[in-house]
Structures are given as structure tokens and as C-alpha cells.
């Protein structure tokens, strides 16, 4: 049997720069001045892409302190330190550019770092060049900034020996090595990340970390055999995951084969963050508005994967999306598995299920989490606990009693001093002036709400606003049955509101989704989201 020579990935220190120059308007960049001009143009472009898509988590200066950082676990990388988890070099130098490019492209499965594969190649390469500018420290003695790339240098990817064939024998050998190398102490006997040490592990910043659940098929550094070989060899710097370079090449390949044998069938397909095209089929007549209408069964579904912003193993992996329009109205159905029906959120320890659809209002796709400056988004937010609104007296009977001179009947007339008795004079029969939340305009406190969905807008963190009640033109309904939520959103295609998404036949709209699981205490920014997908409105 012939043996292939080890394959080494090229050091892209110069190659990536040349690659970038090819995308800029300097086709004859040959002199040092022209090359420098092209490089500066690439870095400037990288800055623009970074500030739209990356600064929300990593911060404007790459410190890992963006406005979204407090909602995320694991925490975003602080680039200044030059400490990267996913590296391909074993020489102690900073990682080659291809490592950074691969992480940007692939994301970091098992964290809130999504795949940015939908960005253009030159956008991703430009971000690599720009974020390298953050890798520095300030020398107090010399009173100057020190570029760590100049101090430590940039390494070369380690060569990967040819992979032998996966056999029952190689898996069996890998299983024994899994035991003798004590991988089970962290990852568990069956690879589910539940070993005896799992709850004690911390990274170099003393943040808790969880060992990987191999059965889910989610690997931060990539799921290809060569990726796993590299992780087993080099470990993950800054984490309790050590390298196993003392093992021979065949032994490490045996471990790779065993780890891959633990992956649940179909798990990797369910968790892959890939941009999908979601067709909005055109039909004649009325659209199905009920979640379990038979019309939905004849409509093709598109699967989109979800990822928790605060990572956990007990999560909703994804949802099915179906969409229809009839030229005037549009309806979108979401369906996902949720074993518990959390449709009441009255007590302080209760949290409700929910789902949201987010639409970009421009062709230039904004930051996926709530948009950004110059990149507004329209959000349809449905909450299960608004399907059948319950009041405090529902959970705590006979608790509330009040006497008010301003209690009113349905005709709006004051009836004088009248005892407030649950079920006799409900909230909506009272004057808003004396129900402070309602009077202040809190849409959650408005007892006259007749829809469980809110039409909202945002242009970055801290900017989420609800449209005026008179402009709320979305209808939604959710039904939970046997562990599955089905929710339908319905709206006219072309709304008169300037901050509403517009749906025209033949157009494409960037769309994202979010789901809240009340049983897991999801609320506000603790949720599970998708990357941007493409809503294709058919003629």
C-alpha cells in the first residue's frame, strides 16, 4: 500500500495579502508603494466589515467587550492578547492567517460565534488583516505600542500525515486509547461531555468551560478528520484540553476514528450553520392562518439550525420554516420541538416560550443581532403567554382586592367606589390612569391587546422599540401539541409603515429567526438564534 507524504498548509502571511490585492482596484500593484497602498485599502475595508458584523460582540477595539458580550457564553475573544483557541501551528508563534480565516468562515460551533461564510471572500480576508491590528500591547517604559506579530512572529501549519482507512480495528484501538489517555474523565465514557471532571473545568481566565459532547457532532475547530487530528495533537490553548503530541501518528488517527464513531447519525447536518434559501410559494386564494391547517402540509419546509447565545447542551437544535403568499398577503409558519409547553409567565420563576422573525430593511445585511447603525431591522415577536393571557389572580386566586373611585364599566362611565373583584371588574374595565403600566404605554400591560405578536424595530443594541398600537398589523397564532410548537405569522405584503419589511414578488429579503425556551429560563437576550438566511418571494 502506498503512503502519501504529509500535507502541509501554506503559510499565508504573504499569500493572503497578495490574494487581497487581487480584489482591489490595483491590478498592477508591483512597486512597494503600490503594494502598501493596496494593503492599506484592504485593512480599511476590513475595518468597515468588522465594525458592522464583529464589533457588536468583540468590541470596537477588539477587547471582547462589545454590547452583546454580556449575553454570550463562552465570552467573545479579546484579540489584544494574541491567544487563539484554534491554531494549526505547533511552534509557539501566532497562528497563520488561514486559521483566522477558517474560524471566521466556519464560526465556532459550541459558542455564539456564527459562521460568516455568507460574506464575500474578500470581506473575510480583509477582516483577518484588520483584526491582526488589535494584537498588540502598550509598553509603559518605551511609551509605545508593540505589535505582537513582530515580537512573536507568525507560524506555519503543522503537516498532517495521510489518514489511514477507518476500520473496526482502528475504532477499537481508539476506544482503548480514549481510556488510557483519560479522555473519559472530561468527555465521559460515551463521549457526552459528562465525565467526572466536567463540572470543575475552567479556562485560563477562570471562566467555567464544558468539555465537548462528541455525540452532537459539534467541534469548534472543524469536524473533518484532519481538523480533529490537529486538535488532538495541539489541544486548545487557554483551555483544559491538552495536546497529545506524544502519541504516535497512527494512535492519534485511531482516536480520531473512535471520536467520529460517537457522533449521532444526522447530528452534524442538524447543527450546520449554513445560509439557506427559503422559498415563499405563491398560491391562489386565501392563505392558511391556522398553525395546523392542512395547507401547510403540502408546502415544502426549509430547515434552519439554531444556536444558543448562552451555550448549553439542552437546546432546541433548529426549526422548520414554511412560507406562502397570494400576491397581497404573506404567511410564515415556524415549527420546532419543545417538550414542555411554557405558555404562562405570571410567577417570578416562570418564563414563556416564544419565537421571532427578523427582516433586514436594506440590501446590505446588517449585524444579525438587532441590526446596527444604518442597518435597521423589522422584528415580529410572538410570545406563547399572550395566546391566552392570564392575570395574577389566575395563579393567585382571591389575592387582589381594591377599591377605586375611578373604576369604570365598558361604556367608560365612572361608577364610584367599587370593590375590584377578580372576574367581576377585570383590568380592561378600569381607567388606564390608575393602572400605571398601561398608562405609561407599556404594551405588555395593555389589557386590550388582541394579538400575541409585536411589530418591532431596532438598529442595534438598546434600540428595540415597539411600533404604535395603531400600526400593529401582524397577526399570529401558536399551537402546542405533543411536544411541538407551530406558529403562523400573517401580514399584508406591502405595509404602509416606513419601518416595515416589504415583500414583493421576485425580491429577496434577508431573514433570521429566534426561539425562546421558557423551561430553560430563556428571556430577553438569552435565546437561540440563526444566522441570516434568504427569503425568496416567488412570482
Number of domains as seen in the coordinates: 4
Beta fraction = 15-25%
What is the CATH fold-level name of the largest domain?
A: Immunoglobulin-like
Taking Cα atoms only, what radius of gyration do you get, to the nearest Å? 27 Å
Largest sheet: 14 strands, mixed
Question: Helix share of residues?
Answer: 10-25%
Shape label: globular
Q: What is the number of E strands?
A: 18
CATH architecture of the largest domain: Sandwich
Coarse structural class: alpha+beta
**Terminal residue distance:** 57 Å
Unreliable runs, pLDDT <50, ≥5 residues?
1-15, 18-26, 417-422
The CATH top-level class label of the largest domain = Mainly Beta
Count of helical stretches: 14
What is the average of the pLDDT values? 87
Keyphrases for this structure?
539 residues; alpha+beta; Cytochrome Bc1 Complex, Chain D, domain 2; 14-stranded mixed beta sheet; two-stranded antiparallel ribbon; globular; disordered N terminus
Question: Can you give a write-up of this model?
Answer:
By secondary structure, the protein is an alpha+beta fold. It folds into 4 domains: 12-147, Orthogonal Bundle (Cytochrome Bc1 Complex, Chain D, domain 2); 168-269, Cytochrome c-like domain (Cytochrome Bc1 Complex, Chain D, domain 2, Orthogonal Bundle), CATH 1.10.760.10; 275-388 and 449-537, Immunoglobulin-like, CATH 2.60.40.1190; 390-443, no CATH class. Helices cover 22% and strands 18% of the residues. The protein has 14 helices and 18 strands. The chain has helices at 12-21, 32-53, 55-58, 97-106, 121-131, 148-152, 168-180, 184-187, 225-234, 249-261, 267-271, 294-297, 392-395, 436-439; strands spanning 136-139, 144-147, 277-282, 302-305, 307-308, 318-325, 329-337, 354-360, 377-383, 402-404, 418-420, 453-458, 465-466, 475-481, 484-492, 508-516, 528-529, 533-537. The strands form 3 sheets. Strands 3, 4, 5, 6, 7, 8, 9, 12, 13, 14, 15, 16, 17 and 18 form a 14-stranded mixed beta sheet that branches. A two-stranded antiparallel ribbon has the order 1-2. Helix 1 crosses helix 5 and helix 7 (168-180) packs across helix 10 (249-261). It is globular and about 75 Å long. Mean pLDDT is 87; it is low at 1-15, 18-26 and 417-422.
Amino acid at each position: 500500500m502506498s503512503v502519501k507524504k504529509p500535507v502541509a498548509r501554506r503559510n499565508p502571511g504573504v499569500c493572503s495579502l497578495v490574494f487581497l490585492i487581487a480584489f482591489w482596484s490595483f491590478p498592477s500593484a508591483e512597486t512597494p508603494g503600490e503594494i502598501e497602498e493596496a494593503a492599506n485599502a484592504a485593512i480599511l475595508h476590513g475595518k468597515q466589515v468588522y465594525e458592522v458584523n464583529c464589533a457588536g460582540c468583540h468590541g470596537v477595539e477588539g477587547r471582547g467587550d462589545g454590547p452583546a458580550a454580556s449575553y454570550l457564553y463562552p465570552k467573545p475573544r479579546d484579540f489584544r492578547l494574541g491567544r487563539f483557541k484554534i491554531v494549526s501551528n505547533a511552534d509557539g508563534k501566532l497562528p497563520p492567517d488561514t486559521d483566522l480565516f477558517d474560524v471566521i468562515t466556519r464560526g465556532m460551533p459550541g459558542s455564539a460565534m456564527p459562521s460568516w461564510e455568507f460574506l464575500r471572500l474578500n470581506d473575510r480576508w480583509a477582516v483577518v488583516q484588520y483584526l491582526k491590528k488589535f494584537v498588540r500591547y502598550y509598553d509603559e517604559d518605551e511609551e509605545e505600542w508593540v505589535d505582537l506579530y513582530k515580537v512573536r512572529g507568525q507560524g506555519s501549519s503543522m503537516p498532517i500525515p495521510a489518514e489511514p482507512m477507518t476500520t473496526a480495528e482502528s475504532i477499537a484501538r481508539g476506544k482503548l486509547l480514549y481510556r488510557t489517555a483519560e479522555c473519559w474523565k472530561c468527555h465521559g465514557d460515551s463521549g457526552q461531555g459528562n465525565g467526572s471532571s466536567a463540572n470543575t473545568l475552567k479556562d485560563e481566565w477562570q471562566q467555567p468551560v464544558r468539555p465537548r459532547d462528541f455525540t452532537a457532532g459539534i467541534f469548534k475547530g472543524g469536524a473533518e478528520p484532519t481538523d480533529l487530528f490537529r486538535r488532538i495533537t495541539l489541544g486548545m490553548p487557554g483551555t483544559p484540553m491538552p495536546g497529545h503530541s506524544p502519541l504516535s501518528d497512527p494512535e492519534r488517527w485511531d482516536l480520531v476514528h473512535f471520536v467520529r464513531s460517537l457522533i449521532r447519525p444526522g447530528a452534524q447536518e442538524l447543527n450546520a450553520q449554513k445560509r439557506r434559501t427559503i422559498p415563499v410559494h405563491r398560491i391562489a386564494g386565501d392563505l392558511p392562518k391556522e398553525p395546523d391547517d392542512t395547507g401547510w402540509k403540502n408546502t415544502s419546509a426549509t430547515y434552519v439550525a439554531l444556536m444558543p447565545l448562552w451555550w448549553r447542551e439542552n437546546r432546541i437544535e433548529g426549526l422548520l420554516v414554511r412560507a406562502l403568499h397570494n400576491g397581497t398577503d404573506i404567511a410564515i409558519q415556524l415549527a420546532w420541538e419543545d417538550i414542555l409547553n411554557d405558555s404562562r409567565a405570571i410567577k417570578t420563576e416562570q418564563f414563556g416560550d416564544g419565537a421571532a422573525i427578523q427582516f433586514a430593511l436594506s440590501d446590505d445585511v446588517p449585524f444579525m443581532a438587532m441590526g446596527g447603525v444604518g442597518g435597521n431591522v423589522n422584528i415580529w415577536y410572538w410570545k406563547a403567554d399572550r395566546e391566552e393571557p392570564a392575570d395574577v389572580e389566575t395563579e393567585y386566586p382571591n389575592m387582589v382586592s381594591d377599591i377605586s373611585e375611578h373604576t369604570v364599566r365598558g361604556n367608560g362611565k365612572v361608577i364610584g367606589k367599587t370593590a375590584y373583584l377578580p372576574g367581576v371588574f377585570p383590568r380592561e374595565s378600569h381607567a388606564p390612569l390608575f393602572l400605571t403600566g398601561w398608562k405609561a404605554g407599556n404594551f405588555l400591560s395593555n389589557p386590550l391587546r388582541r394579538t400575541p405578536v409585536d411589530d418591532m424595530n431596532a438598529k442595534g443594541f438598546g434600540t428595540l422599540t415597539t411600533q404604535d398600537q395603531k400600526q400593529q398589523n401582524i397577526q399570529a397564532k401558536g399551537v402546542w401539541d405533543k411536544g411541538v410548537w407551530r406558529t403562523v405569522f400573517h401580514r399584508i405584503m406591502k405595509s404602509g409603515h416606513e419601518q416595515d419589511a416589504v415583500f414583493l414578488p421576485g425580491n429577496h429579503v434577508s431573514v433570521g429567526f429566534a426561539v425562546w425556551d421558557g423551561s430553560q429560563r430563556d428571556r430577553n437576550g438569552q435565546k437561540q438564534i440563526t444566522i441570516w438566511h434568504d427569503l425568496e418571494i416567488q412570482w
